């Protein structure tokens, strides 16, 4: 009997030499230790055929063999699994000295950068954002802004009409009316957005971007406008920049002004950018015409306001030294990479 157990033990020892994977170890273990079909399992089942006086010794012998086999094969299994893990690590090893695959990094378009910068500056002064529709009625774009039919000022802007009533807005000033119709003062809003005009040359595009500003409250004057714009130009063009107001005409403001800032390139001495004048025109503005306030049901005995309109492309062209507006719309990656503030 002992010879039989010893034979199985030797068989296990020599059989283990040929094992090459944890899967093979698993099958090998089953071959001997499976309760029903394993060789050691079957020895246990033999118990009933063993004479009573030999049963104890037989059982002990089989159990010892079973314990030994469990430990022996268990150790092989552990070693095999550790080796397999190591092999996997080797196979998946990453060479960190290899040059990285470079992904092109995107950045915001200069128009978006300038728009965000202007919004940041005015948001710091307490302005809220209102975005009006790009398709407007004649009323919001012109009539309510004190520019009725046949008003000569309509010729200042070549309008894309969609019908006699509807048009593509030519100015974000239309947003002023929407806001004042909905809300009584105090009002302090910025209205950014696309505007459209039948105009196309090196500095004009049929679609461009404006940013409207409107403040309506008690006792607002032109001084408040200039105070705010002084802050604005310092932040966007540099600390030393100053503003200057020149009389102008817009139907929705009275008085109306054209705002210049001192040339941020030559500091006012005169250069190519400011065409030798030391000043650069940056926006139109003025005190809100009483007629506009009245059109929106705002009491002009109590309230007054100022408004301004900034061209974003123009601001971007000045800031980045671009002389052709088309460069902002062509999406040439070589140009856009140069206009990155990052
Ligand atoms: N809407 C004008 C334009 O498109 C710009 C403008 C001028 C806006 C004066 C204003 C303003 O609010 O007060 O040319």
Please state roughly what percent of the residues sit in beta strands, choosing from under 5%, 5-15%, 15-25%, 25-35%, 35-45% or over 45%: 15-25%
Order of helices and strands: HHHHHEEHEHEEHEEEHEHH
Total tally of structural domains: 2
Could you give a short account of the major beta sheet?
7 strands, mixed
CATH architecture descriptor name of the largest domain: 2-Layer Sandwich
* Model regions low in confidence, pLDDT < 50 over at least 5 residues: none
CATH class value of the largest domain: Alpha Beta
Radius of gyration: 42 Å
Compute the number of strand runs: 9
Number of helices: 11
Shape: rod-shaped
> Which strand order do you get reading across the main beta sheet?
1-4-5-9-8-7-6
Named CATH topology of the largest domain: BirA Bifunctional Protein, domain 2
